[in-house]
Hints:
This is Reductase-like protein. By secondary structure, the chain is of the alpha/beta class.
Amino acid sequence: MAEADLHDFPSLFSLKGKVAVVTGGSRGLGLSAASALLQAGASKVFISSRKVSACDAAAAKLNSLPNLSPGAAAISVPADASTLAGVEHLVAEVKKHTAHVDILLANAGATWGEAFDTHPDSAFAKVMDLNVRGVFNTIRLFTPLLEARGTVEDPSRVIITASVAGLGVGTLGKQGTYGYSASKAAVIHLGRNLAVELGPRHIAVNSICPGFFPTKMANGLLEMSGGKDRIAQGNPLRKLGRPEDIAGAVVYLSSRAASHVNGAALEIDGGALWVSGELGAAGTESKL
């Protein structure tokens, strides 16, 4: 039966020879994703964030991994994705190394926690600028490079790092993350619009929506919410997210296995989004 004849199943999740760009890739979930892309066979993974030292250290760590393909490399490209000039600089630097990009992980993001009545306009604007406007500009300016090698059978991929805070209610109260939650809801819908806009240009656009992962940005909120163990016990799977959870999702969405996935928002939160009550609400929050 034809249904059993899967085309080259052993390569279904391989990223052999792919070129990837990861913004916000020097730490946290971005670094986990970059590691996964490189170990899945990518030939080049560009690591970008604002700090030169952080980008250089992340690239050095990735290049020391033991199971990379021959010639594979992580390349440090510091840039500020919150400004148009910063994104233009990033694109120009990437072009010095390659004429095409197969995978763009728009992961750079920021948050701000403060009570509603004193929440600063400047903080709200900063979060929206990076998390929405910055993502839009990054995808827009990388589109020519993404188009260069995308095909009907194997479209280039854009993956937006959103959050389950953009699907449900995020953190409220003294450390309310109003701009963050609003920005993640906006960027998920932006991804759906771009999936339809860019699909005919052989670029698939999807979002990942993590819940709580113990990262530098999340650890403070985890402690204020009762600690890692308490939040983990409130999760249906009784655990927090792990680096491998992000790694697997990013490799899947980047690979031939997901060549017909477009406009999706993949929740990676152990089901916490659907839990009612204080623990469930806290567990829906993501800090990247």
